[in-house]
């Protein structure tokens, strides 16, 4: 239950960051950076009586129905919550906080708005959810036309940025396209950052004590690998483990106490699956 609550809190946090970037960077500067929100910005220009928050909600609802018809029950509760929460938070901000552009410099708005959006979406994706919206269109194209989801999503976002260019001018349209490109790259990098772990190999005369610390204190597994010392020619054991970043700090401090002469190599791994980490899917 706690895990579920934590996941939903992460989803709301990620969606909140996306809403902030839209309301304080993209919308005031007319940057249509793809997706339903970009399309809502374009529509709002022609129909200013409907604000972007309710527009996103209406389009999300429409796409949800279309997705349910064509894709079946592939829409999880998390995706529904994240997509409608975005529209809800945007509506609240527009109604009660009268959002203004934090900067009128289009380059700064595109860069900072995109980075905040990427962090928010990475948090949502890392909680095994989706922001819905144009993802639904991409999945439908993938199912019936066998077009890769990534390419489908890029095509949809390109159409939205093209509409933005026709509506607000080529310069603003190009900033929207720049945001789409940066966003795709940044999301992957942020998601990798969430999953990064430390891969540690240790050669020490105190391997048994270190292994006990890893298993009992850090609650991680470890493996002994047989080796032969190149200089001494004697049999030895190499201790191998994968731990989280914070856990590695504790491990390093412990090794420093029990065996300051230990030999350690450390590498970064971007995804770990198996017991104690993510399930293999």
UniProtKB/TrEMBL annotation:
It is a multi-pass membrane protein. Keywords: Cell membrane, Membrane, Transmembrane, Transmembrane helix. It is found in: Cell membrane. Residues 220-274 form the DUF2179 domain. The chain crosses the membrane at residues 7-25, 54-71, 77-94, 106-125, 158-182. This is YitT family protein. It comes from Clostridium gallinarum.
């Amino acid at each position: 239950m706690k895990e579920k609550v934590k996941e939903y809190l992460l989803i709301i946090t990620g969606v909140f960051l996306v809403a902030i970037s839209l309301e304080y960077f993209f919308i005031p500067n007319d940057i249509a950076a793809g997706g339903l929100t970009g399309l809502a910005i374009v529509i709002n220009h022609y129909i200013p009586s409907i604000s972007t928050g309710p527009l996103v909600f209406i389009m999300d609802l429409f796409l949800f129905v279309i997705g349910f018809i064509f894709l079946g029950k592939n829409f999880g509760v998390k995706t529904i919550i994240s997509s409608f929460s975005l529209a809800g938070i945007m509506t609240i901000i527009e109604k009660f906080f009268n959002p203004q552009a934090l900067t009128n410099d289009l380059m700064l708005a595109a860069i900072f708005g995109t980075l905040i959006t990427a962090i928010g979406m990475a948090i949502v994706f890392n909680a095994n959810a989706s922001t819905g919206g144009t993802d639904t269109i991409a999945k439908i194209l993938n199912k019936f036309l066998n077009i890769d989801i990534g390419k489908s999503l890029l095509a949809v976002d390109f159409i939205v940025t093209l509409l933005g260019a026709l509506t607000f001018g080529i310069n603003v349209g190009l900033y929207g396209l720049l945001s789409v490109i940066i966003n795709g790259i940044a999301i992957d990098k942020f998601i990798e950052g969430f999953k990064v772990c430390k891969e540690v190999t240790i050669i020490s005369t105190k391997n048994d004590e270190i292994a006990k610390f890893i298993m009992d204190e850090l609650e991680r597994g470890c493996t002994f690998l047989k080796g032969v010392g190149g200089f001494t020619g004697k049999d030895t054991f190499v201790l191998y483990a994968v731990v989280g970043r914070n856990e590695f700090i504790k491990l390093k401090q412990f090794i420093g106490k029990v065996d300051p002469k230990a030999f350690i190599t450390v590498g970064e791994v971007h995804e770990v699956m198996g017991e104690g980490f993510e399930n293999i899917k």
